[in-house]
Amino acid sequence: MASTISIRRGLDLKIAGRPAYKIVDAPRPARTALQPGDFRYFRPRLLVREGDAVKAGTPLLESKDDARVVLVSPASGTIEQIHRGERRKLLEIVVALAGEDAFEEFGALDDSDARALTREALVEKLLKGGAWSLIRRRPFACIANPDERPQSVLICATPQDAFDADPDLVLRGEEKDFQLGLDLAAKLTDGPVFLAVPANAVSPALTAATGVRTLRFSGPYPAGDPAVQIYHACPPKAKESVWYLRAQDLLALARFVRTGRVSPERVVALGGPAATERQLFRTRLGASAQSLTEGRCEPGELRLVSGSVMNGRKIPRTGFIGFYDTALFALKEGREREFLSFFRPGLDKYTVSSTCLSSFLGKAEYALDTNLQGSLRNFVQSGIYEDVCPVGIWPDQTAKAVMAGDIEEMEKHGILDCADCGLCTFVCPSKIEVGAILRRGIDLIRKEG
Predict the structure, then answer these.
(1) pLDDT of 201-220, one tens digit each?
(2) Is 17 within the bounds of a domain?
(3) What pTM was estimated for this model as a whole?
(4) Are 181 and 254 in contact (CB under 8 A)?
(5) 371-400, pLDDT tens digit by residue?
(6) Inside any domain, residue 145
(7) DSSP 359-422
(8) d(Cα 92, Cα 96) in Å, to the nearest integer?
(9) Residues 244, 384: one domain?
(10) Based on the structure, what is the number of domains in the chain?
(11) Are 409 and 394 in the same domain?
């Protein structure tokens, strides 16, 4: 029988624009992209040049720290552009799709042969085919080290938030491959495999899964975040790690092992106040945002966020969906200033701290834009961060330790448990990027080893 874990702290956002609970096929994108910035602490070495012909599964990048870890092309076609930023930092490799998909072959296996793989053979196959990048570790949320043996593995089969593609719907009809993925994940650890599912999950892939410890999670955002689930279910011990995969990533891993080909199919949710057609779209890994938003968003200046609306990445309309992202959020840029805003009662404003009358009216949703509704102020210790923090750390004291560069104090306050959920920044009355400060501290600990 599945155990239930209720997350008490967090915040369900009252933002309009939830996608419809139905999957439709998106138009085939003209181009896709691989973006090294999606992989934390990954130092890329470029393996291709503009104009090169590639297949789905052709290595495009390898890690400077471990050449076995490669990132592969999500599609077959031609390397159209290689974009670089400041100091020639590699930003993205754009692949123009060919007429039909061609795949690199890494050896198909039937289910029995796949389940008979040793751990060493499985790791080697995943590394060779580029599927290893689907596996991440806590702490640090980076690609797992193939030389480690994790304390446990967690499979996150919950939506990140209300605007994310729900695995309970996506996995219906995929029970066989998903169970294969769970069996393969069990080979990676001597400890248990945890399967985190929604409290109301009904998909047979989730309710009838075997060989795992099923945990039902309930509560406000970010109860569906794997970092929060690991903190409450299987926190890593000192010098240990916990590996995790999102449900669609595990499905792609299982398909790769079974077919010997990369599995680029993904279901991505398009939502938000500025989206006019809010839907779950079946598309491919790294698809262009334009292939989903064309004719489905309001005109004017918009902000597109790849991933969760709270901690995702801003991308242009000509940008591409992130490697691990299963949602695309659209909202208007808030450029206008409100006249005498300080004296208005705020009947139509979303407030967390009950400073506006709207908090007493019980409005269900708000068409929010990017306006901060205020300017940068002094940092004030008010306890508001602790009220929403789902992992029980003290964000204000931890942020101060980061600003002081005190690594020992950061670790004492539990900074490595931070879920990087973005709520501290959202609720901050001083409009301070608290989440970015905490992320900077985690990066410092990683750098110092």
Answers:
(1) 999 999 999 999 999 999 99
(2) yes
(3) 0.94
(4) yes
(5) 887 788 887 778 899 999 999 899 999 999
(6) yes
(7) GGTT---B---S--SS--------SHHHHH-TT---HHHHHHHHHHT-HHHHHHTTGGG----S
(8) 13
(9) no
(10) 3
(11) yes
